[in-house]
Amino acid sequence: MTFLAAAGPFDPDSTLRYLARHAIPGVEVVDPACRTFTRLVPRFGGSGPIRVDLAPRGVELQLVESAVEPTAELASLVRAWFDLDADVAAIGAVLDRDPILAAAGRASSAGRIVGFPDGFEAAITTVLGQQVSLAAMRTFAGRLAAAYGSAGPAGLTIFPTPTRLAGLAVDALRAAVGVTGARARTLQAVAALFADGFALDGSITPAAARASLLEVPGIGPWTVEYLAMRVLHDPDACPAGDLVLRRAVGVEGTAAVLTRAEAWRPYRAYAVMRLWSSALAATGR
């Protein structure tokens, strides 16, 4: 087991709630009582499951079915995944200058941006979550994994590969997942992009990633900025067209949000996450 310390305060409870709201059935398991999160990360150590134990000062990383210590590469991925190196004090000092953000920070303990362990999975689940609730996204993603994923150890499912999804007929994909034909075509197009060698990770600049993704039919600025926030770790990403964001700051239109968000630079992504988390906290979910 390897302990990965956070730079500054870390809130395990809000992080666990965030993971639970986004967890893909069959692929990820959240245990609130034990504060653990378990899933497969096939790129590291084969397809063995990893377990992350969330604690007040950081996370404990463990390979579930192995006595071997996690590799430095896996530890680095998990640090980025849980945003452990973010300077939350410096970020908070900037954001708290805005009265709305200051109030949102008091209502929500979120200070870090939880990411994804895999860029392709992130892109596919983000497309599935366009214009639907988180619960609907999880339902769609669970169906997709059950239909086209593969069985892994510990009863977990390995998320479908780009090649697998790219080779499917649109009608089969639509029927299996329960999405519209247009959404199924976007899923297939995203899979084809990744199958052709595109990667959403540290090997590509945020600008290049944005440009490539925006060429995919059905991918718009909101999706691109969301992925920049949660996968590329761009601290200044800003999905300005987001409805919850517009309501939170009390303005209409993308241009008005971007104008207001100038004061949040270079941490617009953290401002957005703070407002989203506050909105969720207000609903009691």
Summarize the structure.
This protein has 285 residues and is of the alpha+beta class.
Features:
285 residues; alpha+beta; TATA-Binding Protein; Endonuclease III, domain 1; five-stranded antiparallel beta sheet; two-stranded antiparallel ribbon; 14 helices; 7 strands; 49% helix
For the sheet with most strands, the description reads: 5 strands, antiparallel
User: Numbering strands along the chain, what is their spatial order in the largest sheet?
Assistant: 1-5-4-3-2
Oligomeric state of the chains? single chain
Determine the CATH superfamily of the domain at 119-219. Answer: Hypothetical protein, domain 2
Number of helices in the DSSP assignment: 14
Poorly predicted ranges: none
H/E element sequence: EHEEEEHHHHHEEHHHHHHHH
Total number of β-strand segments?
A: 7
Could you please say which CATH topology of the domain at 119-219 applies here? Answer: Endonuclease III, domain 1
Residues in helices, as a percent range:
40-55%
Describe this entry's structure for a reader.
This protein is an alpha+beta fold and 285 residues long. Among the domains are: 79 residues, 2-Layer Sandwich (TATA-Binding Protein), CATH 3.30.310.20; 101 residues, Orthogonal Bundle (Endonuclease III, domain 1), CATH 1.10.340. Helix content is 49%, strand content 11%. The protein is built from 14 helices and seven strands. A five-stranded antiparallel β-sheet has the order 1-5-4-3-2. It has a two-stranded antiparallel sheet with strand order 6-7. β6 and β7 form a beta hairpin. α5 packs antiparallel against α9 and α8 crosses α9. The mean pLDDT is 92.
